[in-house]
Amino acid sequence: MKTKGIAYTIFYFIGLFLLFGCKKQDVSPLPELIQAEALMFNNPDSALHILKTMPIPSARNKKQHALWCLLTTQAQFKLCLPFQSDSLIRIAYDYYRHTDNARRKAMSALYMGNVNYELKNITKAMNYFLEAKANIEKTNDYKLGYLVMSSLGNLYVYRNLTDYALEAFQEAYDYAVKDSCKRYEMTTLQDFGRTYSVRGEYERAIQSYNQAIQIRDSIHETFNSLESELADVYFALGNYEKALDLEKRAIKNNIAPDYYGIGETFLCLEEYDSAYYYLKKALHTSNVYTLAGVYEALLSLSQQPTYRQYMTDFCDSLLFYQDSIYALDKSETIIAYKEKYEHQKLAHRNQQLEFQTARWFLLSIIAVLCLIGVITYFYIYRKTMLYRKKEDLNRLTAQLNKNQRLMARNNIYIAELEKRIAENKEVAEQLEEQRETLAFLREENQTLQQKNAHLQTEITSYKSTNGATTITEAFNQLQLEKDQLSALLIETHPYLTALHQHPICLSNADRNQICQLADTIYTGFRQRLLTSIPSLSEYEVLLCCLIKLHFSVSEIATLLAISPASVSTSKSRLKKKIYTQLKLSDEKRSFDTWIWEY
């Protein structure tokens, strides 16, 4: 009792140590983080302002720091700010992927995908989106589900996997409907329109864009240029008048006009003055990719006599911007790699400082835990050895009693078989089988006697009280008495005795009574048999019940009004059927013995 009290005291202090050691990590988010997350959906700029002005949580407080990194990345992405690396969101991702918070895991994986998509790491982005999809299915966050599937769909469109893109957008649309967010429904229909355009299914693209426009007008959105994108579809179809009408409607609705698209449309309509006017207006942009496209259109326009004088200038400008695009792509790649290297270098230095600070603290904890572990080990080892000794004694005693019970049951079967062989009530084939079974049972009893002698020697080598094996011995004695009682009931039951002495053909009522007696004496024998082999027929069940009640072949033949040879054949077929369904090998024991033991 004293040793047990010491052990409980040790475990109590371990629990207190772990409780107070982990308590600092299990805290609620900071108020600024809660406020920023609440503003994120409608006001990401305000959320980012709060995150930038608040004290950044220490990296030691991993939970708060991870949430700050996640929300900051989310706000920057919503505001379309550029990313130089994924190092910030990776902090959140590495923290949440080891937690059980499916929503945070999905969010961190989503923005890991978005950032890598912006950095042109397309394969990585796809893997993160798929991971986010797997986690979002475990939540009821429909907004987040829409964002995940929409991002995955756009990536599929980027890789020209339009079939997968349509499936992803359909799931995104379903999430938007569940969330009752009309803006998300509108955006998904816009994505459908873009995907159908890529596939060349322009009629379905037009239908999707028109549905998106209806939703946009119903919620009074003013910043979505659906008409401009729909105009591109009609432009691809060669319906330049309709495309121009849509571009004009976009301007009328105060949506930022696509001067480049309008200029190209006028160029196709051969209205060269208007084309020149709008293409010149399209030059008022800092996007070099747009400028290169505009000068390419102007160069095409200069084929006309009126504008041929500008051909050289347009050609030089086009070459200049094409060179600029090449240089820009190359320089951006170099800068991205350089900034990524510098950031990783700084992060590595910070990790080293944190490691040195935590090293001594961890070493002291390890020393205390090792000391506690050694004390606990010796206590548990002693208790385990005592428990194993008691278990071994119980196992040996249980095996000894089991063998004794098997020997007693075999003696009952031997007496039954000897009686049948002496009375010669079976057909020749059955007698030969029963003689083989009788020899096998006698040999098994000799083997069991030898094993019992060995077990008795092992048991006496243990110093233990009789109380450890009392329950096992009582159970085995009860099983033996049950077997003996069942055999006695068969021998003394008036109805069964009468049938053994004067067998007569059984009526339907007699057959039911036989099956009921088998169930009563052997505790639901018929139900157990049908549960194991449901395909047995009523005749086959009756035959099993007669064998269970120790009727011989000749007696069964009289009871069922068939020949002994037919009974023997039926038993052989039934044995094969049961052994096949239960996947039993053809053992030395006879089929009668198997039924008796079942």
UniProtKB/TrEMBL annotation:
<feature type="repeat" description="TPR">
    <location>
        <begin position="186"/>
        <end position="219"/>
    </location>
</feature>
<dbReference type="InterPro" id="IPR016032">
    <property type="entry name" value="Sig_transdc_resp-reg_C-effctor"/>
</dbReference>
<keyword id="KW-0175">Coiled coil</keyword>
<dbReference type="InterPro" id="IPR019734">
    <property type="entry name" value="TPR_rpt"/>
</dbReference>
<feature type="transmembrane region" description="Helical">
    <location>
        <begin position="360"/>
        <end position="380"/>
    </location>
</feature>
<keyword id="KW-0812">Transmembrane</keyword>
<keyword id="KW-0802">TPR repeat</keyword>
<keyword id="KW-0472">Membrane</keyword>
<keyword id="KW-1133">Transmembrane helix</keyword>
<feature type="coiled-coil region">
    <location>
        <begin position="414"/>
        <end position="465"/>
    </location>
</feature>
<protein>
    <recommendedName>
        <fullName>Tetratricopeptide repeat protein</fullName>
    </recommendedName>
</protein>
<dbReference type="InterPro" id="IPR011990">
    <property type="entry name" value="TPR-like_helical_dom_sf"/>
</dbReference>
